[in-house]
Amino acid sequence: DVASSRLLYVAGSLFRDVEKKRLMDAWPGTLLEAYGMTEGAPATALFIRDNADKLTTVGQAVPGSEVRVIDSDGRQEAEGGTGEIVGRSGSMMLGYHNRTEASADLEWRSPEGHVFFRSGDIGRLDTDGFLTIVDRKKDVIISGGLNIYASDVEEVLLVHSAVKECAVVAAPSRYWGETPVAFVVPTAPGVISSEGLLDWANERLAKYQRLSVVFFTTELPRNALGKVVKQELRERVGPVVSP
Question: Which one in 117, 120, 163, 206 has a CA-CA gap of 20 to 30 Å to 28?
Fold first, then answer.
């Protein structure tokens, strides 16, 4: 019985809009999604019930914080532009202990001279200042010179009723450099073949996003916080899986 619940606070991993809608039906009280870094910036908040039209976002910068998006050359992106998320706040750490170089790599300095921290996440800001997380920077797949965001491919796979969970990672390709492959936990054994799911997904993906292989697995590897460990999945792929 959760009837007495006043606040549910969600943070730490990707929280899809479909799950937010389910949460609104199942859980009373204020529903708050937070996005931020242990290092102290950036920081955003989404009050889920109050922003039904912004459920694909992680909200706006909280008071005392500022969030921007920059390109690969460190230039600030315009509204709607996709790039690395950087932020600053009043609770930023001074630096990593005895790691001067790592501390320097974390910083981005704005044209105004303010120090922001790089998040390592790819995202974009809309005209209302709401932030959408697209992917982890290290998880972006570069295929034929084009950026493929794993989360976009995962969203397509999750539409299929036979897919319980999935994760998309880069695999080596002689021709393209990298190519996307998917690890899928099916809802039940035998509901669909990996080849059948591959064909279904590729019919719905843009040509440059198409998967080379779908691997079925009983579970996805996770760390202590419950996040999928994609590095382990990349190690499972093995040799080149496409031309």
Answer: 163
The helix/strand/coil state of 171 is strand
| Tokens linked to 13 | 């991993």
Half-sphere exposure of 8 (CA within 13 A, CB side): 15
* Alpha-carbon span 215 to 201, nearest angstrom: 13
Buried b (16+ CB within 10 A) or exposed e, 11-43: eeeebeeeebeebeeeeeeebbbebbbebbbbb
- Tens of pLDDT along 91-148? 999 999 999 999 999 999 999 999 999 999 999 999 999 999 999 898 899 999 999 9
Q: How far apart are CA 84 and CA 81, in angstroms?
A: 10
pLDDT confidence of residue 160: 96
Q: Within a 10 A sphere around the Cβ of 204, how many other Cβ atoms? A: 13
pTM of the predicted structure, to 2 decimals: 0.82
Give DSSP secondary structure letters for 194-214. Answer: HHHHHHHHHHHS-GGG--SEE
Q: What is the pLDDT of residue 242?
A: 63
User: Is 178:141 a contact under the CB 8 Å cutoff?
Assistant: yes
Average pLDDT, the chain: 93
Cα-based distances in Å from 95 to 98, 99, 104, 114:
8, 8, 8, 15
